[in-house]
Design a protein that fits this description.
By secondary structure, the protein is α/β, with parallel strands linked by helices. 18% of the residues lie in helices and 17% in strands.
């Protein structure tokens, strides 16, 4: 994927993005029958915290993280989590779970009175932290991904992990520029009609 040209992504009927690096995680299960996939959840992640690069995030989602390599990793022993997508600091896109399936990214969560957000959401991790600005290439890839997903699923809402698990989670955090993402999503033509009505967190 060239990061110097407009990014165009395509999500296949099987829920896999053609342009993403595919790294299938074992940490997923089927969505409930009749689930409507209408929420995009934005996270941030860095392993170790506030350090970027390397392969530790991928290793975590693939259940192959060596927890003896860093003191922080000890608290991750036995953890089984995943996200549908990861966007690196360079804007590269990795996919771990088909968007048709339920990734294990949200945990205990609620959105507009609906619990178990994993059932009806797509999770996107940005390599980053609550304390550093995200790269423009990450916003561009995230916007392109949201547009591609909106062509395949009836997305109506975008929220942060902090909004669906308040008090428990803080990501993507104060450094995430929701207005910039909104601007990028309003720019492309043509786009699915329901993308124009995409709801954002209050104040974003």
């Amino acid at each position: 994927m060239s990061l110097n040209k407009p990014i165009r992504l395509d999500v296949r009927p099987d829920g896999w993005c053609r342009q993403a690096q595919r790294l299938p995680s074992p940490n997923f299960d089927p969505r409930p029958p009749g689930a409507v996939i209408d929420l995009l959840v934005v996270h941030n992640i860095s392993l170790p915290p506030d350090e970027f690069g390397g392969h530790y995030i991928e290793d975590l989602f693939l259940n192959r993280l060596d927890c003896d390599l860093h003191p922080y990793f000890d608290r991750l022993r036995g953890l089984r989590v995943s996200s549908h997508f990861l966007i690196t600091r360079e804007g590269a896109l990795l996919q771990f779970v088909s968007a048709n399936e339920r990734a294990w990214h949200a945990g205990v969560s609620v959105f507009e009175g609906r619990e178990r957000c994993n059932d009806f959401s797509i999770g996107v991790e940005l390599e980053g932290s609550d304390f550093r600005p995200f790269a423009d290439s990450q916003y561009r890839t995230l916007a392109a991904l949201a547009i591609a997903l909106a062509h395949r699923y009836p997305l109506r809402h975008v929220a942060g992990h902090e909004h669906i698990a308040p008090g428990r989670k803080t990501d993507p955090g104060p450094c995430f520029d929701w207005q910039h993402l909104r601007m990028l999503l309003q720019a492309p033509k043509p786009a699915p009609e329901h993308l124009a009505a995409l709801s954002f967190p209050i104040g974003a």
